[in-house]
Amino acid sequence: MVGLKTNLKIVWNGNTKGAGKVKAAHLETNIAIPESLGGSGEGTEPKELLVTSAAACYSMTLVAMLETRKLPVAGLTMDSEATNSKEEGFKIIHYPHIILSANATEEQVQSANRTILAADKGCAIGNMLKKADVQIDLEGKVSVASGEENQ
To answer: How far is 81 from 78, CA to CA, in rounded Å?
Structure first.
């Protein structure tokens, strides 16, 4: 049984200094070999796409869990970074920042903090990457809006 099927198309022009374009149902972006590896650098590269996939999965899982828990989310931002070293291997760190509405309770703040960790366990892409020995860390933050933004 096929649960999810993803199709995409890549068209490449030129040699290693060339560039390509990847198209999927809701994605279209330029791809290229990084300059540091002898390419043109005129597009995103595979590691960037991999981290993008992990970050998108984590953030969408987080949003769904926050909604399920009926938390008063006023905003959500997230940065992610990846490093690759001989000592630590491939490592991704997500920095989610959840902003709850000004009337959020301490209990809701604690629930949001727990949700940051729960979303990591629920993210399918992150779980696949962990099986491939990718280390994924979280440095999340929950804050409460001051209420002054609405004035």
So the answer is: 10
51: left (phi over 0), alpha (psi -120 to 50) or beta: alpha
Q: CA-based angle 32:87:125, to the nearest 5?
A: 55
pTM for this prediction: 0.89
Hey, which residues does 150 pair with through a beta bridge? Answer: none
Q: Which long-range contacts (CB under 8 A, 24 or more apart) does 55-62 make?
A: 55/80, 55/92, 55/94, 56/125, 57/123, 57/124, 57/125, 57/126, 58/94, 58/96, 58/119, 58/120, 58/123, 58/125, 58/126, 59/96, 61/119, 61/122, 61/123, 62/96, 62/98, 62/115, 62/116, 62/119
Give the tens place of pLDDT for each residue, 87-140: 989 999 999 999 999 999 999 999 999 999 999 999 999 999 999 999 999 999
